[in-house]
């Protein structure tokens, strides 16, 4: 329904007031989290949850409803989606698949094991919840929720992990480099699983399902083999039109928004297009003459992400969990931690890591952070999880990320090398290569921290 001029002006004022509260509170809570040796994103998430019905809504007069009236919420959701698109560009842009090279069977084994085990446990938990009547089956029957919960259990927050490694002095250690490589591969697998979930849920039959799968495949191939080479030529520093960053900024912003629109038009989510576009942008050409462009996008996402946390907080209500909800939370925490830790630690130990190194890797890969919230919001919008399970999963994401830092402190001093194979199968050359790779990973982690995307 179209708004009258007066109603629209009032809604704009409501949005401005909401932003004036959300952004400073989130940044303040983020600073408090940093003082507590936690990633800033945890404080910002906590701020969003506190502004929702879980805390602010408990006070008389419904302050949450007054701060975020129903008419203003669609506009806030729009800003939140834009923040997500910008954030996912940063995730894709800083995802360096070069970390996967030279790691051999250890990275592959740890990555697949720490995805397969939590995925299997998550799908089994979804079936159990539905059988016990604790959750709705959602669209596409039980298949959609089962696949989604498996993917949600499998995620590792690559940006948050980069920040944690930097904070604990592990960014230049080989174990930190291996953890980043595993997290990168795991996130690729988890987002691929989520794409399958979206296609399965949104498709109304075998032909629409095949059509969406074909379009998705063509999109990824086109981005990799058409868009990336075109961007590489267009953004080459020697081109006469690249004397300043104006063209590069327009190309990157335009391509990012068009890619997000394309995946949304296919029936996928906007975050997929933003992530893929960020991954195919040629960093060498862009950083040669326009290094400020990615930083501007990431700084814009920092401003808008608190809105996403606030919108997320409006859907989280810890008061409504009840006894069954607490049982669900304990079950989800057990499955999430056991699946990630056991999957990663056992695989690392079997491929030559020491017990301490294996435990450290299991602890690191259990961090979920903001990436998990992005995935959960997609699932809530799809209808594959209900509000109560959404609340439970948000709590799990916060707790698993919060526990990573203290556990790492108990495991310190951190190991300074990670044996890739039994008996050091790569010898001195492997150690030298690992040290060089670790230094590159440290630089990448540091640049991500400086840009503010290590969230």
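Q: What amino acid sequence fits the structure above?
A:
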């Amino acid at each position: 329904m179209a708004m009258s001029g007066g109603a629209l002006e009032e809604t704009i004022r409501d949005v401005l007031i909401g932003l004036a509260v959300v952004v400073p509170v989130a940044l303040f809570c983020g600073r408090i989290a940093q003082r507590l040796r936690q990633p800033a994103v945890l404080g910002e998430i906590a701020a969003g949850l506190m502004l929702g019905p879980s805390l602010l809504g408990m006070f008389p007069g419904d302050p949450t409803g007054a701060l975020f009236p129903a008419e203003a919420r669609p506009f806030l959701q729009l800003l939140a989606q834009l923040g997500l698109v910008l954030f996912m560009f940063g995730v894709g842009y800083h995802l360096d698949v070069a970390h996967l090279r030279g790691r051999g069977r250890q990275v592959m084994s740890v990555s697949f094991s720490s995805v397969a085990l939590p995925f299997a446990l998550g799908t089994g938990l979804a079936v159990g919840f539905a059988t016990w009547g604790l959750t709705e089956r959602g669209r596409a029957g039980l298949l959609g929720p089962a696949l989604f919960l498996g993917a949600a259990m499998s995620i590792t927050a690559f940006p948050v992990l980069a920040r944690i490694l930097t904070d604990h002095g592990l960014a230049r250690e080989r174990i930190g480099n291996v953890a980043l490589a595993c997290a990168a591969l795991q996130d690729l697998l988890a987002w691929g699983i989520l794409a399958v979930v979206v296609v399965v849920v949104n498709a109304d039959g075998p032909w629409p399902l095949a059509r969406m799968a074909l379009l998705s495949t063509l999109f990824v191939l086109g981005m990799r083999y058409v868009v990336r080479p075109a961007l590489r030529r267009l953004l080459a520093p020697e081109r006469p039109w690249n004397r300043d960053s104006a063209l590069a900024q327009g190309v990157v912003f335009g391509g990012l928004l068009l890619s997000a629109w394309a995946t949304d038009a296919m029936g996928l989510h906007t975050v997929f297009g933003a992530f893929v576009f960020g991954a195919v942008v040629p960093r060498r050409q862009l950083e040669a003459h326009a290094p400020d462009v990615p930083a501007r996008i990431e700084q814009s996402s920092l401003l808008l992400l608190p809105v996403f946390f606030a919108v997320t907080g409006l859907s989280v209500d810890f008061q409504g969990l009840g006894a069954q909800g607490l049982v669900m939370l304990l079950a989800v925490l057990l499955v999430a931690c056991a699946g990630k830790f056991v999957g990663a630690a056992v695989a690392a130990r079997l491929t030559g890591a020491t017990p301490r190194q294996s435990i450290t890797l299991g602890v690191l890969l259990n961090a979920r952070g903001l990436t998990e919230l992005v995935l959960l919001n997609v699932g809530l919008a799809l209808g594959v999880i209900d509000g109560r399970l959404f609340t439970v999963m948000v709590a799990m994401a916060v707790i698993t990320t919060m526990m990573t830092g203290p556990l790492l402190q108990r495991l310190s001093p951190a190991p300074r090398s990670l044996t890739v194979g039994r008996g050091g199968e790569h010898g001195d050359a492997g150690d030298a290569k690992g040290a060089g790779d670790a230094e590159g990973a440290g630089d990448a982690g540091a640049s991500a921290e400086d840009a503010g995307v290590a969230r």
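Q: And what stands out in the fold?
A: The chain has 19 helices and no strands.
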